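Ticket #200: bound-state structure for zinc ion.
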Amino acid sequence: MALAYDGAIQNLIDAFSRLPGIGPKGAQRIAFYLLGAPDAEAQGLADAISEVKSKVRFCEICGNVCETSPCPVCQDPRRDRGVICVVEEPKDVMSIERTREFRGLYHVLGGAINPMANVGPADLRIPQLLERLGDGSVTEVILALDPNIEGEATTRYLAQLLGPLGVKVTRLASGLPVGSDLEYADEITLGRALSGRQAA
Ligand SMILES: [Zn+2]
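RESOLUTION: The complex was predicted; output attached.
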Protein backbone atom coordinates (compact mmCIF):
# COMPACT_ATOMS: atom_id res chain seq x y z
CA MET A 1 0.00 0.00 0.00
CA ALA A 2 1.28 3.44 -0.89
CA LEU A 3 2.00 5.66 2.10
CA ALA A 4 1.54 8.91 0.19
CA TYR A 5 -0.71 10.15 -2.60
CA ASP A 6 0.67 10.91 -6.02
CA GLY A 7 1.89 14.34 -7.04
CA ALA A 8 -0.46 17.30 -6.75
CA ILE A 9 -2.77 16.06 -4.01
CA GLN A 10 0.17 15.08 -1.79
CA ASN A 11 1.82 18.45 -2.46
CA LEU A 12 -1.32 20.18 -1.28
CA ILE A 13 -1.59 17.98 1.83
CA ASP A 14 2.08 18.68 2.62
CA ALA A 15 1.54 22.42 2.15
CA PHE A 16 -1.40 22.48 4.56
CA SER A 17 0.50 20.28 7.05
CA ARG A 18 3.16 22.99 7.34
CA LEU A 19 0.59 25.60 8.43
CA PRO A 20 0.34 26.35 12.15
CA GLY A 21 -2.44 24.51 13.95
CA ILE A 22 -3.12 22.00 11.16
CA GLY A 23 -2.02 18.38 11.66
CA PRO A 24 -1.61 15.73 8.93
CA LYS A 25 -5.24 14.57 9.23
CA GLY A 26 -6.62 18.10 9.06
CA ALA A 27 -4.39 18.80 6.05
CA GLN A 28 -5.78 15.75 4.29
CA ARG A 29 -9.37 16.78 5.06
CA ILE A 30 -8.87 20.29 3.69
CA ALA A 31 -7.10 18.99 0.56
CA PHE A 32 -9.93 16.59 -0.24
CA TYR A 33 -12.53 19.22 0.58
CA LEU A 34 -10.93 21.54 -2.00
CA LEU A 35 -10.70 18.73 -4.53
CA GLY A 36 -14.47 18.31 -4.29
CA ALA A 37 -15.28 22.04 -4.01
CA PRO A 38 -16.51 24.13 -6.96
CA ASP A 39 -13.63 25.53 -9.06
CA ALA A 40 -14.55 29.10 -8.10
CA GLU A 41 -14.18 28.36 -4.40
CA ALA A 42 -10.78 26.70 -4.79
CA GLN A 43 -9.64 29.49 -7.12
CA GLY A 44 -10.90 32.07 -4.61
CA LEU A 45 -8.62 30.61 -1.95
CA ALA A 46 -5.64 30.55 -4.33
CA ASP A 47 -6.34 34.19 -5.31
CA ALA A 48 -6.68 35.30 -1.67
CA ILE A 49 -3.26 33.81 -0.92
CA SER A 50 -1.56 35.48 -3.90
CA GLU A 51 -3.28 38.77 -3.14
CA VAL A 52 -2.14 38.83 0.47
CA LYS A 53 1.43 38.12 -0.63
CA SER A 54 1.45 40.80 -3.31
CA LYS A 55 -0.52 43.57 -1.55
CA VAL A 56 0.14 43.33 2.16
CA ARG A 57 3.25 44.95 3.56
CA PHE A 58 4.53 46.14 6.92
CA CYS A 59 4.06 49.74 8.01
CA GLU A 60 7.41 51.55 7.90
CA ILE A 61 6.59 53.30 11.19
CA CYS A 62 4.78 50.85 13.46
CA GLY A 63 5.46 47.50 11.77
CA ASN A 64 1.78 46.55 11.55
CA VAL A 65 0.46 44.86 8.41
CA CYS A 66 -1.17 47.21 5.93
CA GLU A 67 -1.76 47.78 2.24
CA THR A 68 -0.42 51.34 2.33
CA SER A 69 2.60 52.39 4.35
CA PRO A 70 2.34 54.29 6.69
CA CYS A 71 -0.70 52.34 7.84
CA PRO A 72 -4.13 53.94 8.43
CA VAL A 73 -3.53 54.15 12.21
CA CYS A 74 -0.17 55.94 11.83
CA GLN A 75 -1.77 58.33 9.31
CA ASP A 76 -4.91 59.05 11.34
CA PRO A 77 -4.75 62.64 12.69
CA ARG A 78 -7.28 61.78 15.42
CA ARG A 79 -4.94 59.31 17.11
CA ASP A 80 -3.01 60.48 20.16
CA ARG A 81 0.62 60.73 19.02
CA GLY A 82 1.86 60.98 22.60
CA VAL A 83 1.16 57.35 23.50
CA ILE A 84 2.63 54.23 21.92
CA CYS A 85 1.34 50.76 22.72
CA VAL A 86 4.02 48.12 22.17
CA VAL A 87 2.78 44.68 21.09
CA GLU A 88 4.41 41.48 19.85
CA GLU A 89 2.52 40.74 16.63
CA PRO A 90 0.21 42.51 14.16
CA LYS A 91 -2.72 40.39 15.41
CA ASP A 92 -2.27 42.00 18.85
CA VAL A 93 -3.01 45.42 17.33
CA MET A 94 -6.41 44.05 16.33
CA SER A 95 -7.00 42.69 19.86
CA ILE A 96 -6.24 46.10 21.41
CA GLU A 97 -8.32 47.96 18.80
CA ARG A 98 -11.32 45.76 19.60
CA THR A 99 -11.29 46.93 23.22
CA ARG A 100 -11.96 50.54 22.00
CA GLU A 101 -9.94 51.68 25.01
CA PHE A 102 -6.91 52.90 23.12
CA ARG A 103 -6.58 55.94 20.86
CA GLY A 104 -2.80 56.17 20.58
CA LEU A 105 -0.32 54.64 18.16
CA TYR A 106 1.23 51.17 18.05
CA HIS A 107 4.63 49.61 17.75
CA VAL A 108 4.86 45.98 16.64
CA LEU A 109 8.05 44.28 17.88
CA GLY A 110 7.76 41.24 15.64
CA GLY A 111 7.98 38.75 18.50
CA ALA A 112 9.24 38.47 22.06
CA ILE A 113 12.54 37.60 23.69
CA ASN A 114 12.77 33.81 23.71
CA PRO A 115 16.19 32.24 24.38
CA MET A 116 14.82 28.75 23.64
CA ALA A 117 13.97 29.83 20.09
CA ASN A 118 17.13 31.95 19.75
CA VAL A 119 15.17 35.20 19.68
CA GLY A 120 17.04 38.00 21.41
CA PRO A 121 16.48 41.78 21.64
CA ALA A 122 18.47 42.24 18.41
CA ASP A 123 15.83 40.27 16.50
CA LEU A 124 13.02 42.63 17.51
CA ARG A 125 12.06 46.10 16.22
CA ILE A 126 13.56 47.78 19.29
CA PRO A 127 15.88 50.27 17.50
CA GLN A 128 12.85 51.51 15.53
CA LEU A 129 11.01 52.05 18.82
CA LEU A 130 13.91 54.04 20.28
CA GLU A 131 13.98 56.13 17.12
CA ARG A 132 10.30 56.97 17.54
CA LEU A 133 10.98 58.14 21.08
CA GLY A 134 13.86 60.31 19.93
CA ASP A 135 12.08 63.64 19.46
CA GLY A 136 10.39 63.64 22.90
CA SER A 137 6.83 63.87 21.56
CA VAL A 138 5.90 60.49 23.05
CA THR A 139 5.09 60.76 26.74
CA GLU A 140 3.94 57.22 27.49
CA VAL A 141 4.87 53.76 26.26
CA ILE A 142 2.44 50.99 27.16
CA LEU A 143 3.97 47.52 27.16
CA ALA A 144 1.17 45.17 26.07
CA LEU A 145 3.01 41.91 25.60
CA ASP A 146 1.62 38.41 25.93
CA PRO A 147 0.98 37.25 29.53
CA ASN A 148 3.55 34.44 29.32
CA ILE A 149 7.26 33.91 30.12
CA GLU A 150 8.53 35.44 26.87
CA GLY A 151 6.21 38.44 27.15
CA GLU A 152 7.30 38.97 30.74
CA ALA A 153 11.01 38.79 29.83
CA THR A 154 10.45 41.31 27.03
CA THR A 155 8.44 43.62 29.29
CA ARG A 156 11.25 43.63 31.87
CA TYR A 157 13.89 44.21 29.23
CA LEU A 158 12.02 47.13 27.67
CA ALA A 159 11.12 48.68 31.04
CA GLN A 160 14.83 48.76 31.94
CA LEU A 161 15.81 50.08 28.55
CA LEU A 162 13.18 52.81 28.35
CA GLY A 163 13.11 53.82 32.03
CA PRO A 164 16.17 56.11 31.84
CA LEU A 165 14.81 57.91 28.75
CA GLY A 166 12.37 59.93 30.82
CA VAL A 167 9.26 58.52 29.13
CA LYS A 168 6.48 57.08 31.29
CA VAL A 169 6.54 53.28 30.88
CA THR A 170 3.44 51.31 31.83
CA ARG A 171 2.30 47.72 31.47
CA LEU A 172 -1.08 46.02 31.30
CA ALA A 173 -2.70 45.38 34.68
CA SER A 174 -2.67 41.78 35.84
CA GLY A 175 -5.85 39.78 35.35
CA LEU A 176 -5.21 38.42 31.87
CA PRO A 177 -5.18 34.62 31.54
CA VAL A 178 -1.58 33.77 32.46
CA GLY A 179 0.56 31.71 30.07
CA SER A 180 -1.43 32.58 26.98
CA ASP A 181 -1.57 35.05 24.12
CA LEU A 182 -3.10 38.49 24.20
CA GLU A 183 -5.53 37.39 21.50
CA TYR A 184 -7.18 34.88 23.83
CA ALA A 185 -8.23 37.53 26.32
CA ASP A 186 -11.77 38.77 25.78
CA GLU A 187 -12.26 42.43 24.91
CA ILE A 188 -13.62 43.44 28.31
CA THR A 189 -10.77 41.80 30.25
CA LEU A 190 -8.17 43.25 27.90
CA GLY A 191 -9.85 46.66 28.01
CA ARG A 192 -9.70 46.59 31.81
CA ALA A 193 -6.04 45.54 31.78
CA LEU A 194 -5.35 48.46 29.49
CA SER A 195 -7.26 51.12 31.41
CA GLY A 196 -5.87 49.82 34.72
CA ARG A 197 -2.27 49.82 33.46
CA GLN A 198 0.49 50.30 36.00
CA ALA A 199 4.03 51.62 36.05
CA ALA A 200 6.37 49.00 34.58
ZN1 LIG B 1 1.70 52.12 11.19
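RESOLUTION NOTES: Residues 59, 61-62, 64, 70-71, 73-74 surround zinc ion (CB under 6 Å).
TICKET STATUS: resolved
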